[in-house]
Design goal:
It is a single chain. About 45% of the residues lie in helices and about 15% in strands. A 4-stranded mixed beta sheet has the order 2-1-4-5, with no helix packed on it. It starts with 12 loop residues before the first helix and ends with a strand. The chain has a domain of about 110 residues. The chain contains 18 helices and 15 strands. Its EC number is 2.7.7.49.
Length: about 500
Amino acid sequence: MTPALMHGGAASPSNNWSSINWKRVDADVRRLQMRIAKSARAERWGKVQALQHLLTRSHQAKLLAIKRVTENQGRNTPGIDGIVWINAKQKWEAAKTLSCRNYRSQPLRRVYIPKKNGKKRPLGIPTMYDRAMQALFLFAYEPVAEVTADHHSYGFRPKRSAADAIERCFNVLAQKTSAQWILEGDIKGCFDNISHTWLNQHLQLEKRVLNQWLKAGFMDKGRLFPTTAGTPQGGIISPCLSNGALDGMEAMLKSMTKPTQKVHLIRYADDFVITANSKELLENTIKPAVMAFLFERGLTMSEEKTLITSITKGFDFLGFNVRKYGQKLLIKPSKSSIKSFLESIRLVIKKGISMPMARLLSSVNRKIVGWANYYRHVVAKKVFDNVDSAIFRAFHRMIKRKHPKKSAAWLYRKYYTHRGMRQWMLIAPYTTKNGEKRIVWLKKAADIPIRRHRQVISVATPYDAEWFDYFDKRATNMSHLEQASGSFYLGLMRA
């Protein structure tokens, strides 16, 4: 395949990049991906391998890989070579040099990110070139991964989300006759310990290239450290590889249990829960089988954190608490999630005491809307009200510290207004770059409408033409809901 340019003739590299017809490029790559998925469904693995080879050598896919890594969140973060691709010329030249022949991955650059508990989490950063190679091979591997994936795996998969996983929990636990016991699985260092041998033997991916990432190692303070297990940290393809290692658990459980035992797996990346109609079944049959399944892949479960819980006691999963009160199942934001969110908001407010109020409000507003949107599909209205009150109090304390000698009336005139039934609406005026005066106000989580999420059909895949209409309609419906929930939040109003 050749680059899809909007016009012909000789052109500079920067013009070439700017002239790419991305719709055509995307369509060409998607067409090959669908052929890969079709061959995988038919278990024609030789055909799959041939099509993957064709895709990873196509210029169209290389262009799309460069586009992906230069537009994502880490686009300005270099690897050990210090290189980033910023302008059109660099991107075009990178696409021309991207090659599988004699490819050698460079070590990752090790950095440390602060954790909530004060400790630091190590993170590996690949070079831009290695990221682009991973994106390229992800185009070839993901269609196969989608065909072979567990039906009720929801993490790091296209067209699936945590909301689908939580809705699945509701669907299998809400009835009077539903399972009463849950195994909460906790895998020790899943991404760091997956067996390289197992990945090489079972994943439908070019082994020579895969091993370049698995064995790349990392650089820390000038020293090279080898990697003998785990998926490449910080890599675009890593979540998909990890999913591939854990897929098959659902089929195993189905083969060894009966429908009357109500055994269901719900998994999001390495977090999973398994339901059953008895504690004994989970303890004596399911847990040993899962441990053996993981052991084959170089993984173990944490004895301390792997729990078997009654649904009447409830359990936390993906930041939600799932619990049955009598015969009614309620899913709410977990206490730990609420606490963590409010702590992060208070920290932003504390650090922003000298910041212009409009900028501080905008920063907090983004956090509020993001958090509320994550929980807007469950029983969260009361929690939203409480969170809004806590955030308002945190702001009010900060304002009083900022102006200790000012009266309440002065503070109200400077920082607050009323609108409708709201008497204390925190606002801040600002001026746009073109001189237009506007106002930003503190948003409320409670203004996000609570709406039930519709779970994705478990067998649907975006690489099968049969499901195109389904995903189009689903995207349209979800877009309408997002617009409805966001209509109150234009964020700005004219002064």
